[in-house]
Each structure stands twice: as structure tokens, then as C-alpha cells.
Specification:
- The protein is an alpha+beta fold.
- Helices cover about 65% and strands about 15% of the residues.
- The chain has five helices and five strands; from the N terminus they run H-E-E-E-E-H-H-H-E-H.
- The chain has helices at about 5-20, 55-70, 80-105, 110-115, 125-150; strands spanning about 25-30, 35-40, 45, 50, 115-120.
- The protein has a five-stranded antiparallel sheet.
- A hairpin with a 4-residue loop joins strand 3 and strand 4.
- Helix 1 packs antiparallel against helix 5.
- The protein is elongated.
- The model has no long low-confidence stretch (mean pLDDT about 90).
Length: about 150
Amino acid sequence: MIQRIQTVYIVIAVMLTLASLCLQIGYFNLEGLTVAREYNLWIIDETGKCDFITWPLFAILVPSAALGIYTVFAYNNRKSQARMCIFNVLLIVGWYILYGVYSRVLPGDTVRQSDFVPTVFAAFPALSALFYVLANRGIVADERLVRAADRIR
């Protein structure tokens, strides 16, 4: 059913994922000055030049958001809905692995010498993964409830 609590969890997870796509997820600081700002799709350096080196971060979160939207409407098949939630969590774990790589390994001498500072918006995918796990628990509980009701009949 679409009005279950797991639907609310999935919708919140999708909204957090979409917000993370649009907001700054970190910046590079060199001696108190911001050298570059990192977004999911690009990095903007101090001159204002955009470098699309971080596009794989964007390429992971877009399918995650799309799959989350599809998961909301896949309420007829609870098993596949639970699998999609787990797959979204795995996508987000992959996003964090790439996020760690891009925060440490970037081209340019100025950026390499600077310190990376994540923003609070970098935690949005982790919160999204938490909501997917909560939704998965609700879906599995519903499946157990339906199985128990079928056994009683």
C-alpha cells in the first residue's frame, strides 16, 4: 500500500538525495582561504572555472533518486521493493567511496596542497541510506504480516 510508513521513509530519502545533488558537498581550504568548492557534478576553483571531474558522484545519485521514486510506486511487489531499497543503500555506499577518493585525489597543485572540508550537505546521502534501511525494515515487516495472514486462512 502506498500510504504505509515505508513510503514516507522512501520519499524523505529521495528528497535528501535530490537536495544533495544541488548543494555544495565540500570545499578545499588553503591557509584559511577557500581554493575550490566541490559539488556533485563539478568543482569550482578560485577563478570561477568549472571542472567536471566529479561527475561520477552525480552519476551515482541520479539513478539512486530515480530508483527511489520507482520504489515508492512498486508497492505491489514487496520483495522487489525491499531489494531496491538495499540496492539504493549500496549505491550510496559507493557514492561515499568515490566522495572519499575525490576529496583526496584531485588534479591541480593548489587543490592537492589544501585541506578538504566536507559540508553538512555531504551527510544527506547517509541520512538517505538510513531512511532506505528503515523503509526496508517496514517492507519486510509487512511481508511477514501478509505471510502470516495467508497461513491463517
